[in-house]
Each structure stands twice: as C-alpha cells, then as structure tokens.
Specification:
- With about 350 residues, this protein is of the alpha/beta class.
- It has 3 domains: about 150 residues, 3-Layer(aba) Sandwich (Rossmann fold); about 60 residues, Helicase, Ruva Protein, domain 3 (Orthogonal Bundle), CATH 1.10.8; about 120 residues, Zinc Finger, Delta Prime, domain 3 (Up-down Bundle), CATH 1.20.272.10.
- Helices cover about 60% and strands about 10% of the residues.
- It is built from 16 helices and 7 strands.
- The strands form 2 sheets. A 5-stranded parallel beta sheet has the order 2-3-4-1-5, sandwiched between helices. Strands 6-7 form a two-stranded parallel ribbon.
- The longest helix has 23 residues.
- The chain is elongated, with a radius of gyration of 26 Å.
Length: about 350
C-alpha cells in the first residue's frame, strides 16, 4: 500500500495492477488515481471497463494488447474477477479447476509480456489465492496490493480528513462516536459522514449532538441502550430494545455475542478503573474505541462485580441451552434479559 502511494506521488505506473481485499472504497479510489495518472485525457478512447464475470481472460488479454490509436496510453480496468478465488479441495470440481487454468493461459502470457502502452488494472473484492500463477505473474510484472479496512485510530483519522475536505471540523470524540456507530467498512463510514455533511450544511463544526441526531442507530448502539436498561432493572424497556433489534434484522446469535462481549468489557473496565487505569489506557488494553471504553466505564459504575459476573453466567447458560436443543436462542436470549434485570 505504501509502495503504491509513493509511486503514484512520483507519477509512476506499472503495466499491470492487481488490487484486492475487503476495503472496496480504498480500492476504487486507488484505481481511479492510477487511471487518472495513466490516461488523464478521458477522451473516450483511452479507457476501457470490463467485467471479469462477463469477459474471458482471453478477451481481457486481447483488449489490453490492442492499445489505442487515439491516445498515448490506455487503461483497461476489470472488475468482478472470479479467477483468483482461493482454491477448493481437489475432490471438489477438479475438472473445473483444470478448465479454468487453461482459460487463464492467454492472460498469463500477456502479463508476462505486457503492452507498454496499456495499464491493466484487475480488481478483486475479497481474498485471493496468492499461490496462483496469475497472482505470481502480476507480482513479477507489476504490482499486487491488498486493501484492508482501517481500524481504530486510522479509521477515525480517515473520517476527520474526509470531513475536513468537505469544509467541516469534528472533535476526536465526535469522530470516535461516528466511527463506532457507522458499522464495518469505509463505505458505511462514508455514508454516515455524507449525511452529517448535509445535516450540518450551514455550519463548519460538527458537534456530538449533531452526530447523535443523524448517525444511523446500529446494533452496537442498541446493545449500549439495552445494557443501560439492564443496569437500571428496566425489564420492559430492555425487552422493547431487544425486539427492535430483531425487527432490524439482527440475528440472535450475533446479538448474544455482542451483549456478552459488552458485559465482558464492562467488567474489565470496572476492574481497571478500580486499579487506577485511565480511559485511553483501558481502550488500548481492551482493543476498543475510546468512546466505547467511556460507555463501559460509565455502565460499570451502575453495577457491582457480582451482578456483572452473574449476567455473564446467565448469557452463557442461554447459549449452552440453545446448543443442546433446549430452546430457540431468540426466546432464550429474551428470557436471559429478563433474568438479568431481576438480579
């Protein structure tokens, strides 16, 4: 990733790129930068866009090898490529794998000796087989770059810079809150940031109140609300929150894990606070966002150790009963919530 950034800053490109990984937003942005650098005119003749699930490797190779009569350099960008998925077991579809390998030969031949007047960009959403001949060929002739979703401080820095580019300023606390609530991936974070920018169109500073008013309520925010009600022994409201999360499409298994994780973090934060640790130290030790740590510290003040440990025991028992076939986890989780409220 750093090598790619450095080469683009110097105005340098290579004949073949393989961009892959879970962070599609960063991948698309990198592809756009390479495209703009290699074919800045965008005159309709210097850029071609293909789909790997609609075009064969031979067709991609032919398009890349043809060059352009009307431009000095051409970019061929190929999305939705199925050719680099991790290999299945040999017992499953061995003939299909052999056919696929044969289909790749024209593209492999091109990558080994690419057209200097073409920049070929291959995009793969997700992981790739790094031991494949195609991956190794690109690595030898060009550049393979994995795009991983930023975490923690890197994610918050991305958000801060994105808001700043739109003429908005946000405190670290606001960025932490939005990053935590937005869900996984930069696409989700960008969507929430765009909503905030529109919501705060008449002002330059985005406040915590603005963020809480407009950022979508995720399952994590619902879990915060749920544990707040559990700490307050408010069974009726806790049950309503749980039902709302179900209605939003959250799976019982996922919610059970998030609630149990929340209680674990509350218990750990309470213990660390008693031993003199500060919020930032707690967040770093537990591997959670500072805003999340702040919530856990606050919730820990409303519960004693015995109640927190007992709540974890109840959640564990619900999961065990579900695995043993003694009930549906959805119903068992609701019963566990009521039992925790009664502690």
């Amino acid at each position: 990733m750093h090598n790619l950034e450095n080469s683009l800053r110097l105005g340098m490109t290579v004949p073949v790129y393989l961009f892959y990984g879970e962070e599609t937003l960063l991948m698309e942005q990198a592809a756009a930068r390479v495209t703009a650098l290699a074919a800045p005119a965008d005159n309709g003749f210097d850029r071609e866009y293909l789909r790997g699930d609609e075009h064969t490797p031979a067709e991609v190779a032919e398009t890349a090898d043809s060059g352009s009569f009307f431009a000095e350099k051409k970019v061929v960008l190929v999305r939705d490529i199925p050719w680099l998925r991790p290999k299945r077991k040999k017992t499953e579809g061995a003939e299909e794998q052999e056919d696929s390998a044969l289909q790749l030969e024209p593209l492999l031949a091109y990558i080994r000796d690419p057209n200097p007047a073409t920049v070929l960009i291959l995009l793969v959403n997700g992981s790739v087989n790094r031991n494949s001949r195609l991956y190794k060929a690109v690595q030898a002739s060009g550049s393979c770059v994995e795009f991983v979703s930023p975490r923690g401080g890197e994610r918050e820095l991305w958000l801060k810079n994105y808001l700043f580019a739109a003429g908005k300023q946000a405190s670290p606390q606001v960025c932490q809150y939005v990053s935590l609530m937005a869900g996984d991936g930069l696409q989700a974070l960008k969507a929430e940031a765009d909503k905030l920018i529109l919501y705060c169109a008449a002002q330059t500073t985005i406040t915590q109140a603005d963020a809480e008013a407009i950022v979508s309520r995720t399952a994590l925010s619902g879990v915060f609300e749920l544990t707040d009600n559990l700490a307050a022994h408010n069974a009726a409201q806790a049950a309503l929150v749980l039902h709302r999360l179900y209605q939003q499409g959250e799976e019982p298994k996922n919610l059970h894990g998030m609630i149990a994780s929340q209680y674990h973090n509350i218990l750990a934060a309470k213990d660390m606070t008693a031993r003199g640790f500060r919020q930032q130290e707690i967040a770093s030790t537990l591997g959670i966002a500072p805003y999340y740590a702040k919530k856990c510290i606050a919730q820990g003040k409303n519960s004693d150790y015995r109640r927190l440990v007992r709540a974890l025991d109840i959640l564990l028992a619900a999961d065990y009963d579900a695995m043993c076939g003694r009930g549906d986890l959805k119903d068992l989780l609701e019963l566990a919530i009521l039992r925790i409220c009664a502690l």
